[in-house]
Automatic annotation (TrEMBL):
Residues 312-436 form the UDP-glucose/GDP-mannose dehydrogenase C-terminal domain. GO terms for molecular function: NAD binding; UDP-glucose 6-dehydrogenase activity. The keyword Phosphoprotein does not apply. It catalyses: UDP-alpha-D-glucose + 2 NAD(+) + H2O = UDP-alpha-D-glucuronate + 2 NADH + 3 H(+). It is an enzyme of class 1 (oxidoreductase). One of its GO terms (cellular component) is nucleus. Its EC number is 1.1.1.22. Keywords: NAD, Oxidoreductase. It comes from Rhynchospora pubera. Belongs to the UDP-glucose/GDP-mannose dehydrogenase family. Involved in the biosynthesis of UDP-glucuronic acid (UDP-GlcA), providing nucleotide sugars for cell-wall polymers. This is UDP-glucose 6-dehydrogenase.
Amino acid sequence: MAMIALKCPKIEVAVVDISAPRIAAWNSDQLPIFEPGLDEVVKECRDRNLFFSTNVEKHVAEADIIFVSVNTPTKTRGLGAGKAADLTYWESAARMIADVAKSDKIVVEKSTVPVKTAEAIEKILTHNSNGIKFQILSNPEFLAEGTAIDDLRAPDRVLIGGRETPEGKKAVQALKEVYAHWVPEDRIITTNLWSAELSKLAANAFLAQRISSINAMSALCEATGANVSEVAYAVGKDSRIGSKFLNASVGFGGSCFQKDILNLVYICECNGLPEVANYWKQVIKINDYQKSRFVNRVVSSMFNTVSGKKIAVLGFAFKKDTGDTRETPAIDVCKGLLGDKASISIYDPQVTEDQIQRDLAMNKFDWDHPIHMQPVSPTAVKQVSVTWDAYEAAKGAHGVCILTEWDEFKKLDYERIYDSMQKPAFIFDGRNVVDAEKLREIGFIVYSIGKPLDQWLKDMPAVC
C-alpha cells in the first residue's frame, strides 16, 4: 500500500487494522517491521495520501477498492487440521465489508488463499449485499522480504485474476490501471480467478522445492566428499535451471513456504489427487530432515551430548535483512538442542529477546494468529539467554551455530571468538557464510552444510 501511495499520488490509500498498538506503530517513527527502504517510502507518503487508522468501517465504506490482507493460518483442529487454511479472519472481514458497504466495491484477495476461496467470499458478499454489487479479484503478492521495496518498484510480474464476465473484466481493468502508474503493461498478467489463486501457491511450492532439492544434495555431498557449492554452481550454470535458490542451508523458513505447500497438499487430497499431494509433501519432509540432521551433527560432534554445554546461536531471523522469525529454522534447531539440555545464547541484530522467547515457547502455527489470540507472555525458556553482541553470545561456549546469513557474521573477529570459547571449539555453519579453511587454521573444528567433512566429524558420525 505504501508503494501504491508513492507511485499514485492522486490515489488515497488507507491501511486499517483492528489492532490499535499496530496502527500506532505505523504512525510513529519506529515502524513495527524492519525492511530496508520502507521507512523512507512510508515517511514520504504518510498523512499525504497514505493513512493508517483503526477506523476500519469508515474507510471500508468510503473505498472503491478494498485489499484484504488478513492472516490465513494453517488450521490446528477440526477438518483439515495441520494442512488446510483457516479462513476465519477472511470470512469475518468479508461479512464486515458487506455490512458497511453503501456503494459497489472491488474486493481484492491479497492474502495467500486456497484455490476457490474467491467463490466462498463471493457467496458471503452477495448473500449479504443489500443490492450492492461486489467484484472479487485475486492479486497475489510475490515480493520477498529483505528486498521488498525493490521487488515492488520493479516486479517480475503483477498478477490479477478476475471473473470472465463484463463486470469482472471491468474490475480487472480498474486494478490494472493502478499498477500501470509504474509497472510496464507487459508485466501485468491477467488470468481467471482460479489461475491467479493457484499461481501463488505453485510459485512458492516451486521455490521451496528448489531449496529442498539442493538441501537433499547437501546430505549426499557430505556422505561422498563432494562440495555442494561446486555442485550448485555447475548445475546453476545451465540456463534452463539458473542459479537462484540453490544455496544449501539449514532449511527454509518464513511465513509462506511451508503453509502454502501444506495448503496445496490439502487441496490435492480434497480433489482426489493423493500422488500429487505426496509429491509436494516430500518438499517439507526434506526441510524437516535438514533441520534435524543439523541438530544431530551438532550433538554427535560434541561427544554425543550437549547437556549443560553453552551453545551460541548467531542469527534467529529466517533470512538476512529482515526481523521476521516466522517458521525460522532457528526455532527447530534451538528446540532440538534444548531437548538435549543445552544452554543457548542467541544473538540476532534485528530480533528482540521478547520475540525469541515467544517463538521458543509457542506451539506450531500459533504465530499466524493475531497477537491478541496468541498465548499471553509465555514463560521464558530458562536455558535461553539473548545478547546484543556476537562476542558475548560466544564467550565460554563449546560451539557456535550460524543460522542466519547476516553479512556481519562474515566479518567477525573469529580469533577473538576462538580465544573466548571452551576447547575444542566448534563452528556449525548452517548458511555457508564463513571461510571454513581460515577458521580451521585458527583452531576451530568446522562443519559447513554440504562440504567435505573434517576428520573429527568423520570420526563422530551423526546418528539420524
